[in-house]
Amino acid sequence: MTNDVAAERRAEQRAWYVYDWANSAFLTTTLTVLLGPYLTVLAKRDACPGQDTDLACHTDLHVLGVPVAPGSLSLYVVTFATLVSALLLPLVGALADRTGRKRSMLAWFAWAGSAAGVSMVFLGGDNWELGVVLQLIATLAFACSIVVYDSLLVDVAGPDERDRVSSRGWAAGYIGGTVLLVINLALVSGHDAVGLSTEGAVRLNLLLAGLWWGLFTIVPYRRLRDRPPVDPVETAAGGGLLSMARASFGQLADTLRHLRGYPQTMAFLIAYLVFNDGIQTIIYASSIYAQEQLGLSSDQLILAILIVQFVAVFGALSFGRIAARAGAYRTVFGSLFVWCGVIGIGYFLPHGQFAPFAFLAALIGLTLGGTQALSRSLYSHLIPRGREAEYFSLYAACERGTSWLGTLAFGLTFQLTHSYRYAIIILIVFFVVGALLLRRVNVRAGITQAGNPVPAVI
């Protein structure tokens, strides 16, 4: 590789990192910390008018005739968004592979989600319906952008670079999330000084998160470059978007048929589906659990997630170094047992005490970035060249922002028991089953089956 080519690759990698900086801040501030609890408050205000929103509300909302506990509403929205994603994301992946316009697709999905995030500044009163619509749009746009973003890893990093590049991307995301969370914490804690109510500070933070995502997306849009499709399939002349969509579904059907020819890839994808659902549910439900079950305040929630973000920077980079010696596969496998410990500690946390929850936040941060970054780089070795976005669309169906088995189990358990403690303990099943399934994956054989070079350490 010449010096000019190497410099260009490093420049693209830096631009790729910036999108993690952009979207992770939105994921953390809006989809993890603020929106779920705030939407719960709006729903409780509608279901139990006149009641203090700090108290439990045992009156159900009725959404299209279905009774829904206010405390489960946001979790069910995530579940529904994922079911829609099952139809949408494969089309997005197929289109990205066929058109070779990944850079533009990444940006436009990000800007659509950013617009929904900015519009959350208008939430208030008991208007949970608008919150549901905006959460759906933002979650779907986020998921679509991640399909394209993850597939770009193969373009910007070679086989022996991917663990390092993927880990640095996650670290950049956590740094970005930390910076924005510091601003969030300052606004929520000092809302009186700037003439805002607590809810006003929350809405302002939702606005800032949407702007952050949209503005920083300009960097990868301008600095990444599109590449021609690998083995493109011609579409009928003049067919336009409809013809492209029809051909893309045909390509997806072909990929699903051929996925059976990559049994280790399929085995890894199934294992990842299970254990990542547990991770995603912890990400989405942690703020609701802390507010509703442990009685922590909004500024304490932000401080806890700030701890997660800060520790996760070092966790992602440390896991990358561990993987360089022990291999990504062994590192991910070991992390699943740490997640079981996280859930066990979370179940026994005392009500109203921040320090134990802060310790748990640090443990989550240490494990979170490494598990996700190394899972992404490990999977990138198991997919055939030229179908990265399409295969990552399957991966994204169980990636951050699109979990549904865990959120459904969590929401149903709370609705049946009215206890978030029982809801959180059920998540251990996802990590135990995920570890058992991951144990059956032969990664080296899978890389060979996909026709990819085997890294020095896997």
UniProtKB/TrEMBL annotation:
<feature type="transmembrane region" description="Helical">
    <location>
        <begin position="21"/>
        <end position="39"/>
    </location>
</feature>
<dbReference type="InterPro" id="IPR050495">
    <property type="entry name" value="ATG22/LtaA_families"/>
</dbReference>
<keyword id="KW-0813">Transport</keyword>
<keyword id="KW-0812">Transmembrane</keyword>
<feature type="transmembrane region" description="Helical">
    <location>
        <begin position="391"/>
        <end position="414"/>
    </location>
</feature>
<feature type="transmembrane region" description="Helical">
    <location>
        <begin position="266"/>
        <end position="289"/>
    </location>
</feature>
<feature type="transmembrane region" description="Helical">
    <location>
        <begin position="130"/>
        <end position="149"/>
    </location>
</feature>
<keyword id="KW-1133">Transmembrane helix</keyword>
<feature type="transmembrane region" description="Helical">
    <location>
        <begin position="355"/>
        <end position="379"/>
    </location>
</feature>
<protein>
    <submittedName>
        <fullName>UMF1 family MFS transporter</fullName>
    </submittedName>
</protein>
<feature type="transmembrane region" description="Helical">
    <location>
        <begin position="200"/>
        <end position="219"/>
    </location>
</feature>
<feature type="transmembrane region" description="Helical">
    <location>
        <begin position="105"/>
        <end position="124"/>
    </location>
</feature>
<dbReference type="InterPro" id="IPR036259">
    <property type="entry name" value="MFS_trans_sf"/>
</dbReference>
<feature type="transmembrane region" description="Helical">
    <location>
        <begin position="170"/>
        <end position="188"/>
    </location>
</feature>
<dbReference type="Pfam" id="PF11700">
    <property type="entry name" value="ATG22"/>
</dbReference>
<dbReference type="InterPro" id="IPR024671">
    <property type="entry name" value="Atg22-like"/>
</dbReference>
<feature type="transmembrane region" description="Helical">
    <location>
        <begin position="420"/>
        <end position="438"/>
    </location>
</feature>
<feature type="transmembrane region" description="Helical">
    <location>
        <begin position="301"/>
        <end position="319"/>
    </location>
</feature>
<feature type="transmembrane region" description="Helical">
    <location>
        <begin position="73"/>
        <end position="93"/>
    </location>
</feature>
<keyword id="KW-0472">Membrane</keyword>
<feature type="transmembrane region" description="Helical">
    <location>
        <begin position="331"/>
        <end position="349"/>
    </location>
</feature>
